[in-house]
Design brief:
Number of domains: 2
Number of strands: 0
Structural class: mainly alpha
Strand content: under 5%
Largest sheet: none
Distance between the termini: 43 Å
Helix content: over 70%
Order of helices and strands: HHHHHHHHHHH
Amino acid sequence: MTGAAEVAPVVVAYIPIGLLWGTLAAAKGIAPLEAVMMSVIVFAGSAQFVAVDMWRDPVPVLLLTFTALIINVRHVLMSASLSRHIEAIPRAWHPLVAYFLVDESWALAERRALSSPLTLPYYLGITLPLAATWWITTCIGAMLGRALGDPSAIGLDFAFSAMFIAILMGFWKGPSTAGVLAASGAVAAATHLAFAGPWYIVAGGLAGALYAYATWRAEEAA
């Protein structure tokens, strides 16, 4: 119950984002069943938004696959971080832990690990509502299609960004956090301006990790 209660605000934020993605998918001619299957199999909002933006006939399968790989390479960093905290979760459940690992579940699990052991009931409590909400809302959005109107007219296009900003604030620890965010954001912005494609996601993540590592080494040496 603790996990479900903590993830409730994020679940609410998932609703407009899922509806938005379903609407965009319908506009590209993706059938509701196909949209749901993509959400279940891929289950990665950022990659799905990029994929639907690139969608055309014929579908550039190799390009979409490579782009999704680049976008989701951050899961390697998240998995390495989360692996330190899953000793209490039976190994047989680890593949399911990996499947449900998204930015929001990672952030909540990491925050939980700061004060309490990360247990399977807690992890399922935060991940199952997220997954179910994403699957259902993308299906509804795909079925309604353009009936929802222009999502940007009511600010739904900013919902994704707003949710991530709120999650990041949960990790705020003062100047050290500000440094990581500044380094990551600056490098991501510069990369986005200099190179086409999703390379800014990888560059920003690596810049933040390197800054955190350099800061830690400096503190250890002091």
